[in-house]
Amino acid sequence: MAAALFDISGKIAVVTGAGRGLGRGYVKELAQAGAVVICIGRHEESLRTAVQEMTAEGNTAAYFAGDVTDVNFIEEVMSKIYSAYGAINILVNNAGTEIAKPIEMVAESDFDKIVSVNIKGTYMMAKEAVKYMRRSKSGKIINIASLGSFIGLAESTVYCASKGAVVQFTKALALETAKDGISVNAIAPGYFLTEMTEEFFKDREHSAWICERIPMGRIGTYKDIAGTLIFLASKASDYITGQTVVVDGGWLAG
């Protein structure tokens, strides 16, 4: 019975930002748990490789290359997924970006890019997912927030503002869709080594500052988020909505 609670076999899971970073790990874990994984991202070669790896292991996966800030692309791809598979059961809003700069160096184009990906893309993907999830009166939306949703990080003012918005959006959408059987939650990772954060770890002083603040004494990997991801994607979390689960090695506890 316990295993059945976490069973997502055959569920249609859409993951944005799926070709790189933590997204690459998310799709692998969802596929190994039995989900049909649809990968979305801007880097077609990375997406193709991710799908090839999953299908080589006997899992079912596909990809669509495009930009989550393009509403026309979102509407078109979500319609195609629903038409092809008959459902959209899980959405993992993982696509995100950061441009770390002192505030006086932040250009309007930097601001627009971060906000467009982290807020607009998350919002519009969820909007389309809700449209299809309401038809089946069920669904799981998992937004990816951040440690920066809760603490300020110098030279990451736009990023922190955008990730704070993700937490508030998660709460508001959860209230709006609860009656439709749709759960909306978020995962807030701490510091994980990815393409987006590797510059932080190249700076020895900054890297030491990060590691000193993690009680568990190490940087996380996508495996550290896998359990939380599967939990929020499965029946085990059916009575949980509007929540953000922090996966940070204990950073916010201190």
Structural commentary:
By secondary structure, this protein is an alpha/beta fold. Helices cover 47% and strands 15% of the residues. It has one domain: NAD(P)-binding Rossmann-like Domain (Rossmann fold, 3-Layer(aba) Sandwich), CATH 3.40.50. It is built from 9 helices and 7 strands, in the order αβαβαβαβαβαβαααβ. α2 packs across α9, α4 packs parallel to α5 and α5 (108-136) runs parallel beside α6 (157-177). It is globular, with a radius of gyration of 17 Å. The termini are far apart. It holds the Pfam family adh_short_C2. Belongs to the short-chain dehydrogenases/reductases (SDR) family. InterPro entries: NAD(P)-bd_dom_sf (IPR036291), Sc_DH/Rdtase_CS (IPR020904), SDR (IPR050259), SDR_fam (IPR002347). This is NAD(P)-dependent dehydrogenase (Short-subunit alcohol dehydrogenase family).
CATH topology-level name: Rossmann fold
Ends distance = 36 Å
User: Could you give the order of the helices and strands?
Assistant: HEHEHEHEHEHEHHHE
Q: What's the CATH H-level superfamily name?
A: NAD(P)-binding Rossmann-like Domain
Instruction: Kindly provide the radius of gyration, computed on alpha-carbon positions and rounded to a whole number of angstroms.
Output: 17 Å
Helix content: 40-55%
Protein name: NAD(P)-dependent dehydrogenase (Short-subunit alcohol dehydrogenase family)
InterPro entries: NAD(P)-bd_dom_sf, Sc_DH/Rdtase_CS, SDR, SDR_fam
Organism: Pectinatus haikarae
Pfam family, one: adh_short_C2
